[in-house]
Specification:
Layout: H1 3-6, E1 19-21, H2 30-39, H3 55-64, E2 67-71, E3 77-84, E4 87-95, H4 104-118, E5 123-129, H5 136-141, E6 145-147, H6 154-165, E7 174-180
Parallel strand pairs: 4-5
Antiparallel strand pairs: 1-2, 2-3, 3-4, 5-7, 6-7
Length: about 190
């Protein structure tokens, strides 16, 4: 098998960029990828996103994650998974805008659900903007459902409070969403 064959992924829409667990050397490039992806939100939010952590702090946070999945070598998309309230939590999903609309976000979300199953978690949660087309509606198409704020467990409720404190709620409606991890690959 040559290098080209090893990098091919048979699933449609990945364009030869398989989803894999990030290697330590991948992490340094991910904050810039996240910033590029976040720039797409400008057209959908009521104000600009608050500045994120500096690159060193962002890389350190990625290194502490339960898992980081990436699409491609070098990465053109990534998903950061944390453990929140004893469950898998998709903390961040980002795809380089130059590679958008090719199925990479879907592949990364599916990879998160597969990771959750492999690690014994029965669901995946996330927080997102409810009305941004490539946020709430995207996750709904993949089988995620909104969780009522009154039903949030302690850590997710704390995460939502933190998001409000840093100003995310002022940019647009935010929601917590949940999907059972073992339902197969729901969505398009």
């Amino acid at each position: 098998m040559n290098d080209h064959d090893r990098d091919r992924d048979p699933r449609p829409g990945l364009g030869g960029r398989p989803v894999r667990v990030a290697a330590p050397e991948d992490l340094a490039a991910l904050p810039a990828l996240e910033s590029a992806a976040d720039a797409l939100l400008a057209d959908y939010l009521d104000a600009p996103l608050p500045p994120g952590p500096d690159t060193e702090a962002a890389v350190a946070a990625l290194a502490r994650a339960a898992a980081v999945l990436v699409a491609g070598t070098p990465p053109v998309g990534f998903a950061r998974i944390d453990v929140v309230d004893g469950g898998a939590h998709l903390e961040q999903l980002a795809v380089d805008p130059a590679f958008a609309r090719r199925g990479l976000g879907t592949a990364l979300v599916r990879g998160c659900c597969d990771w959750a199953v492999a690690h014994g978690f029965d669901a995946v949660t996330l927080t997102t903007f409810a009305q941004v087309p490539f946020n709430g509606p995207f996750y709904a198409r993949l089988g995620f459902a909104v969780v009522d704020d009154a039903a949030l467990p302690t850590e997710l409720a704390g995460l939502r409070r933190h998001e409000a404190e840093v100003g995310l709620d002022a940019l647009g409606p935010r929601v917590v969403m949940r999907r059972a991890s073992g339902l197969g690959h729901t969505g398009r």
